[in-house]
Protein backbone atom coordinates (compact mmCIF):
# COMPACT_ATOMS: atom_id res chain seq x y z
CA UNK A 1 0.00 0.00 0.00
CA UNK A 2 2.90 2.37 0.80
CA UNK A 3 4.39 2.04 -2.67
CA UNK A 4 1.37 3.52 -4.43
CA UNK A 5 1.42 6.90 -2.63
CA UNK A 6 5.19 7.13 -3.17
CA UNK A 7 4.76 6.52 -6.90
CA UNK A 8 1.94 9.06 -6.93
CA UNK A 9 4.19 11.68 -5.32
CA UNK A 10 7.00 10.90 -7.76
CA UNK A 11 4.63 11.24 -10.71
CA UNK A 12 3.36 14.58 -9.45
CA UNK A 13 6.93 15.82 -8.99
CA UNK A 14 7.81 14.66 -12.52
CA UNK A 15 4.76 16.34 -14.04
CA UNK A 16 5.66 19.67 -12.41
CA UNK A 17 9.38 19.35 -13.19
CA UNK A 18 10.20 21.94 -15.88
CA UNK A 19 13.29 20.04 -17.04
CA UNK A 20 11.19 16.92 -17.69
CA UNK A 21 8.91 18.93 -19.98
CA UNK A 22 11.95 20.21 -21.85
CA UNK A 23 13.19 16.65 -22.37
CA UNK A 24 9.82 15.60 -23.81
CA UNK A 25 9.93 18.60 -26.19
CA UNK A 26 13.45 17.69 -27.32
CA UNK A 27 12.47 14.06 -27.91
CA UNK A 28 9.43 15.17 -29.95
CA UNK A 29 11.52 17.55 -32.09
CA UNK A 30 14.16 14.88 -32.78
CA UNK A 31 11.45 12.32 -33.57
CA UNK A 32 9.88 14.74 -36.08
CA UNK A 33 13.24 15.34 -37.80
CA UNK A 34 14.05 11.63 -37.99
CA UNK A 35 10.56 10.76 -39.24
CA UNK A 36 10.53 13.52 -41.89
CA UNK A 37 13.91 12.35 -43.23
CA UNK A 38 13.21 8.63 -43.15
CA UNK A 39 11.68 6.31 -45.77
CA UNK A 40 8.37 6.93 -43.94
CA UNK A 41 8.48 10.70 -44.63
CA UNK A 42 5.36 10.53 -46.79
CA UNK A 43 3.46 9.18 -43.82
CA UNK A 44 4.63 12.12 -41.69
CA UNK A 45 3.19 14.66 -44.12
CA UNK A 46 0.07 12.59 -44.72
CA UNK A 47 -0.64 12.48 -40.98
CA UNK A 48 -0.45 16.23 -40.46
CA UNK A 49 -2.50 16.94 -43.59
CA UNK A 50 -5.42 14.81 -42.37
CA UNK A 51 -8.45 17.07 -42.07
CA UNK A 52 -10.59 17.13 -38.95
CA UNK A 53 -13.95 18.84 -38.46
CA UNK A 54 -14.94 19.96 -34.97
CA UNK A 55 -18.28 21.46 -34.00
CA UNK A 56 -21.85 21.20 -35.24
CA UNK A 57 -22.98 22.19 -38.75
CA UNK A 58 -22.73 25.90 -39.53
CA UNK A 59 -20.30 26.71 -36.70
CA UNK A 60 -17.96 23.79 -37.38
CA UNK A 61 -14.26 24.34 -38.05
CA UNK A 62 -12.37 22.15 -40.52
CA UNK A 63 -8.57 22.23 -40.43
CA UNK A 64 -5.76 19.79 -41.00
CA UNK A 65 -4.13 18.29 -37.90
CA UNK A 66 -1.12 20.62 -38.08
CA UNK A 67 -3.38 23.67 -38.01
CA UNK A 68 -5.42 22.22 -35.15
CA UNK A 69 -2.19 21.96 -33.17
CA UNK A 70 -0.90 25.40 -34.20
CA UNK A 71 -4.17 27.34 -33.99
CA UNK A 72 -6.10 25.30 -31.44
CA UNK A 73 -3.92 23.53 -28.89
CA UNK A 74 -1.29 26.27 -28.94
CA UNK A 75 -3.95 28.78 -27.86
CA UNK A 76 -3.98 26.87 -24.56
CA UNK A 77 -0.19 27.20 -24.33
CA UNK A 78 -0.40 30.94 -24.98
CA UNK A 79 -3.14 31.19 -22.34
CA UNK A 80 -0.75 29.68 -19.77
CA UNK A 81 2.00 32.07 -20.90
CA UNK A 82 -0.46 34.95 -20.50
CA UNK A 83 -1.23 33.74 -16.96
CA UNK A 84 2.47 33.75 -16.08
CA UNK A 85 3.03 37.25 -17.43
CA UNK A 86 -0.13 38.57 -15.71
CA UNK A 87 1.01 37.19 -12.35
CA UNK A 88 4.40 38.85 -12.72
CA UNK A 89 2.83 42.14 -13.83
CA UNK A 90 0.57 42.29 -10.77
CA UNK A 91 2.41 40.58 -7.91
CA UNK A 92 5.81 39.68 -9.36
CA UNK A 93 8.96 41.30 -10.69
CA UNK A 94 7.22 43.10 -13.57
CA UNK A 95 4.92 45.09 -11.28
CA UNK A 96 7.62 47.79 -11.43
CA UNK A 97 6.82 49.42 -14.76
CA UNK A 98 10.49 50.24 -15.32
CA UNK A 99 11.30 46.54 -15.02
CA UNK A 100 8.46 45.72 -17.42
CA UNK A 101 9.74 48.26 -19.95
CA UNK A 102 13.08 46.49 -20.38
CA UNK A 103 11.76 43.27 -22.00
CA UNK A 104 9.34 45.36 -24.08
CA UNK A 105 12.23 47.45 -25.44
CA UNK A 106 14.31 44.31 -25.99
CA UNK A 107 11.44 42.75 -27.94
CA UNK A 108 11.10 45.90 -30.04
CA UNK A 109 14.80 45.74 -30.84
CA UNK A 110 14.41 42.05 -31.63
CA UNK A 111 11.76 42.96 -34.18
CA UNK A 112 13.36 46.02 -35.79
CA UNK A 113 16.93 44.70 -36.14
CA UNK A 114 16.05 41.46 -38.02
CA UNK A 115 13.80 43.42 -40.39
CA UNK A 116 16.54 45.99 -41.08
CA UNK A 117 19.14 43.25 -41.65
CA UNK A 118 16.75 41.40 -43.96
CA UNK A 119 16.15 44.51 -46.07
CA UNK A 120 19.88 45.32 -46.11
CA UNK A 121 20.69 41.87 -47.48
CA UNK A 122 17.76 41.53 -49.88
CA UNK A 123 17.61 45.12 -51.06
CA UNK A 124 14.63 46.23 -53.12
CA UNK A 125 12.42 44.26 -55.43
CA UNK A 126 9.59 41.85 -54.67
CA UNK A 127 11.77 39.89 -52.22
CA UNK A 128 11.69 42.87 -49.83
CA UNK A 129 8.07 42.00 -49.06
CA UNK A 130 9.40 39.18 -46.89
CA UNK A 131 10.80 41.59 -44.28
CA UNK A 132 8.31 40.33 -41.71
CA UNK A 133 9.46 36.70 -41.93
CA UNK A 134 12.36 36.93 -39.41
CA UNK A 135 10.42 38.92 -36.79
CA UNK A 136 8.84 36.29 -34.57
CA UNK A 137 10.49 34.38 -31.74
CA UNK A 138 9.32 30.77 -31.50
CA UNK A 139 8.10 31.11 -27.95
CA UNK A 140 7.21 27.43 -27.55
CA UNK A 141 10.75 26.29 -28.31
CA UNK A 142 12.22 29.16 -26.27
CA UNK A 143 10.22 28.06 -23.23
CA UNK A 144 11.13 24.43 -23.90
CA UNK A 145 14.87 25.18 -23.93
CA UNK A 146 14.54 27.15 -20.69
CA UNK A 147 12.62 24.25 -19.16
CA UNK A 148 15.31 21.81 -20.28
CA UNK A 149 17.93 23.82 -18.38
CA UNK A 150 15.72 23.73 -15.28
CA UNK A 151 17.00 25.41 -12.11
CA UNK A 152 20.35 26.24 -13.75
CA UNK A 153 18.68 29.29 -15.31
CA UNK A 154 17.80 32.01 -12.74
CA UNK A 155 14.10 32.77 -12.42
CA UNK A 156 14.70 36.40 -13.41
CA UNK A 157 16.35 35.35 -16.68
CA UNK A 158 13.46 33.00 -17.48
CA UNK A 159 10.92 35.74 -16.82
CA UNK A 160 12.86 38.25 -18.94
CA UNK A 161 13.14 35.88 -21.91
CA UNK A 162 9.50 34.83 -21.58
CA UNK A 163 8.38 38.47 -21.54
CA UNK A 164 10.57 39.31 -24.55
CA UNK A 165 9.21 36.33 -26.47
CA UNK A 166 5.56 37.11 -25.81
CA UNK A 167 5.89 40.84 -26.66
CA UNK A 168 7.86 39.87 -29.78
CA UNK A 169 5.11 37.46 -30.82
CA UNK A 170 2.37 40.04 -30.26
CA UNK A 171 4.24 42.58 -32.41
CA UNK A 172 4.80 39.93 -35.09
CA UNK A 173 1.09 39.06 -35.08
CA UNK A 174 0.28 42.75 -35.56
CA UNK A 175 2.76 43.04 -38.45
CA UNK A 176 1.33 39.94 -40.12
CA UNK A 177 -2.21 41.27 -39.69
CA UNK A 178 -1.33 44.62 -41.28
CA UNK A 179 1.21 43.64 -43.93
CA UNK A 180 0.44 40.06 -44.91
CA UNK A 181 -3.24 39.40 -44.27
CA UNK A 182 -5.23 39.93 -47.46
CA UNK A 183 -8.39 40.89 -45.65
CA UNK A 184 -9.19 41.21 -41.97
CA UNK A 185 -12.81 40.53 -41.11
CA UNK A 186 -14.10 43.51 -39.08
CA UNK A 187 -17.27 41.66 -38.07
CA UNK A 188 -15.32 38.82 -36.51
CA UNK A 189 -12.89 41.26 -34.88
CA UNK A 190 -15.85 43.03 -33.28
CA UNK A 191 -17.27 39.67 -32.20
CA UNK A 192 -13.96 38.75 -30.53
CA UNK A 193 -13.86 42.15 -28.82
CA UNK A 194 -17.44 41.60 -27.66
CA UNK A 195 -16.44 38.28 -26.14
CA UNK A 196 -13.57 39.93 -24.27
CA UNK A 197 -15.94 42.63 -23.00
CA UNK A 198 -18.27 39.86 -21.81
CA UNK A 199 -15.39 38.30 -19.87
CA UNK A 200 -14.62 41.67 -18.26
CA UNK A 201 -18.29 42.20 -17.33
CA UNK A 202 -18.50 38.69 -15.83
CA UNK A 203 -15.42 39.42 -13.73
CA UNK A 204 -16.84 42.74 -12.52
CA UNK A 205 -20.13 41.04 -11.71
CA UNK A 206 -18.37 38.50 -9.51
CA UNK A 207 -18.93 35.41 -11.65
CA UNK A 208 -16.60 32.92 -9.97
CA UNK A 209 -16.73 29.45 -11.53
CA UNK A 210 -14.07 28.98 -14.20
CA UNK A 211 -16.47 26.74 -16.13
CA UNK A 212 -18.70 29.76 -16.81
CA UNK A 213 -15.87 31.45 -18.70
CA UNK A 214 -14.96 28.47 -20.89
CA UNK A 215 -17.75 28.91 -23.52
CA UNK A 216 -16.98 32.63 -23.78
CA UNK A 217 -13.28 31.89 -24.15
CA UNK A 218 -13.97 29.35 -26.88
CA UNK A 219 -16.13 31.93 -28.67
CA UNK A 220 -13.31 34.51 -28.48
CA UNK A 221 -10.92 31.94 -29.98
CA UNK A 222 -13.45 31.06 -32.71
CA UNK A 223 -14.04 34.71 -33.62
CA UNK A 224 -10.30 35.46 -33.64
CA UNK A 225 -9.68 32.46 -35.91
CA UNK A 226 -12.23 33.79 -38.41
CA UNK A 227 -11.04 37.40 -38.12
CA UNK A 228 -7.79 36.83 -39.99
CA UNK A 229 -5.59 37.20 -36.90
CA UNK A 230 -3.68 34.23 -35.53
CA UNK A 231 -6.05 32.47 -33.14
CA UNK A 232 -3.41 32.02 -30.44
CA UNK A 233 -3.57 35.75 -29.70
CA UNK A 234 -6.93 35.01 -28.03
CA UNK A 235 -5.13 32.77 -25.54
CA UNK A 236 -2.65 35.50 -24.60
CA UNK A 237 -5.35 38.12 -24.09
CA UNK A 238 -7.59 35.82 -22.03
CA UNK A 239 -4.59 34.86 -19.88
CA UNK A 240 -3.78 38.52 -19.26
CA UNK A 241 -7.42 39.15 -18.27
CA UNK A 242 -7.36 36.46 -15.56
CA UNK A 243 -7.27 37.97 -12.04
CA UNK A 244 -3.85 37.55 -10.43
CA UNK A 245 -5.08 38.18 -6.90
CA UNK A 246 -7.42 35.76 -5.07
CA UNK A 247 -11.13 36.03 -5.88
CA UNK A 248 -13.50 34.97 -3.12
CA UNK A 249 -10.60 33.40 -1.27
CA UNK A 250 -9.54 31.34 -4.28
CA UNK A 251 -6.31 31.89 -6.20
CA UNK A 252 -7.84 31.40 -9.66
CA UNK A 253 -4.69 32.18 -11.65
CA UNK A 254 -2.43 29.91 -9.60
CA UNK A 255 -5.00 27.12 -9.74
CA UNK A 256 -5.29 27.39 -13.54
CA UNK A 257 -1.52 27.41 -13.93
CA UNK A 258 -1.14 24.36 -11.71
CA UNK A 259 -3.76 22.43 -13.67
CA UNK A 260 -2.82 23.51 -17.20
CA UNK A 261 0.98 23.64 -17.05
CA UNK A 262 1.42 19.83 -17.13
CA UNK A 263 -0.97 19.60 -20.09
CA UNK A 264 0.89 22.22 -22.11
CA UNK A 265 4.37 21.03 -21.10
CA UNK A 266 3.84 17.31 -21.68
CA UNK A 267 1.23 17.27 -24.46
CA UNK A 268 0.64 20.55 -26.30
CA UNK A 269 4.21 21.78 -26.80
CA UNK A 270 5.62 18.33 -27.72
CA UNK A 271 2.78 17.92 -30.25
CA UNK A 272 3.68 21.34 -31.64
CA UNK A 273 7.29 20.20 -32.03
CA UNK A 274 6.24 16.91 -33.60
CA UNK A 275 3.98 18.72 -36.08
CA UNK A 276 6.41 21.49 -37.07
CA UNK A 277 10.00 20.32 -36.55
CA UNK A 278 9.87 17.73 -39.34
CA UNK A 279 11.98 19.67 -41.84
CA UNK A 280 13.15 17.67 -44.87
CA UNK A 281 16.95 17.98 -44.86
CA UNK A 282 17.58 15.63 -47.76
CA UNK A 283 17.81 18.39 -50.35
CA UNK A 284 15.36 16.78 -52.74
CA UNK A 285 17.17 13.45 -52.67
TrEMBL record:
GO terms for cellular component: plasma membrane. One of its GO terms (molecular function) is sodium:proton antiporter activity. It is a multi-pass membrane protein. Pfam families: Na_H_antiport_1. One of its GO terms (biological process) is regulation of pH. Gene3D superfamilies: Na+/H+ antiporter like domain. InterPro entries: Na/H_antiporter_dom_sf, NhaA. Keywords: Antiport, Cell membrane, Ion transport, Membrane, Sodium, Sodium transport, Transmembrane, Transmembrane helix, Transport. Coiled coil: none annotated. The chain crosses the membrane at residues 67-85, 105-125, 131-150, 159-180, 210-240, 260-279. It is found in: Cell inner membrane. NCBIfam families: NhaA. This is Na+/H+ antiporter NhaA. It comes from Saccharothrix algeriensis. The lineage of its organism: Bacteria, Bacillati, Actinomycetota, Actinomycetes, Pseudonocardiales. The gene is nhaA.
Amino acid sequence: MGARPRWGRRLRRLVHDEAAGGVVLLVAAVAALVWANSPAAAGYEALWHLRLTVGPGPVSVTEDLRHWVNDGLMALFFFVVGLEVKRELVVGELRDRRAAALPALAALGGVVLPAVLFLAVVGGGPEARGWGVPLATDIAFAVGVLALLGSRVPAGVKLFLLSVAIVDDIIAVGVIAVAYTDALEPGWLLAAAGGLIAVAVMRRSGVGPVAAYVPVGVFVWYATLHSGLHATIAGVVLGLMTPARPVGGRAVLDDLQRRLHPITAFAVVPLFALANAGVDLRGGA
